[in-house]
């Protein structure tokens, strides 16, 4: 796990350097570990206005020019999560380190309590993941850019699946929307 943290920290530092900096510290001591869920981390509570100091922290890596990424960050904050957003044009290394399967990828990634959250996953689904902590799950994804998912609101919303994925690339449907 230590080598994974070191590798992730290097990827984060390289991403920050490539985009001229990040919105907060990406040093190795601050690098989140997406390899294993934190056992003592609190589950997300239902939203009650501004996020509390003990609300789960979602560390997001996104393109600074992507409006839907910014809307997803807003969605997470409005639903009780603390969010630390890092603007970068290079998120592939972060997604690789978090074991996000290529077919499950979208435009941004969030790391929360040891899980990777790829794309426009609804806040209530992230809350369910943190509460249930299913065995073997490394993260959740909404592949692509699905109209009607959080941050992608618009006319003619589409039905979509939230995909659970494991560190070895196995996927399954976690929720249907």
Widest beta sheet: strand line-up? 2-1-3-4-5-6-7
Q: Can you count the beta strands?
A: 7
Radius of gyration: 15 Å
Number of domains: 1
> What order do the helices and strands follow?
HEHEHEEHEEE
The N- and C-terminal alpha carbons lie at a distance of 34 Å
User: How many DSSP H or I helices?
Assistant: 4
| Mean pLDDT level | 79
Summarize it.
This protein has about 180 residues and is of the alpha/beta class. About 25% of the residues lie in helices and about 20% in strands.
Would you give an account of this structure?
This protein has helices at residues 2-18, 67-78, 92-97, 123-132, and strands at residues 57-62, 82-87, 109-112, 115-119, 137-142, 161-166, 171-176. The protein is of the alpha/beta class and 177 residues long. The protein has one domain. It has four helices and seven strands. Strands 2-1-3-4-5-6-7 form a seven-stranded mixed beta sheet, with helices on one face.
